[in-house]
């Protein structure tokens, strides 16, 4: 399987702040399997799944994590961290903050951040981490070590003569 279907949970917290009324963040990524609670199609309206006095949550279905061989180094960096994450890029459009893309690549998340996007890292489930880990074990090839030439002032003077 080259992709992992997921749904993203976005949360809005109400703030007691003079300048800002609310704060948004991606707080969960759940597997989306046929018949499961997170199943859905891309473009399907979000489901309001939690309503409390100080926070609300919405489930956005229809996303999937895809793995690509040219990103294997970045997946390796993610998997070798103490807490592997799924990165969710989102935008505030209208009344809701909506996830736009998901990835397991550190590099892709960094590119999103560099371009000014909102990105949250969500801890990866064990099942998802096993799947990405299998991909990394199959496709990651460490870069060959290069011989480092030390700066030897005597060697430079010998070359001139």
TrEMBL record:
Region of interest: Disordered: 142-161
Protein known as: DUF3305 domain-containing protein
Domain of life the protein comes from: Bacteria
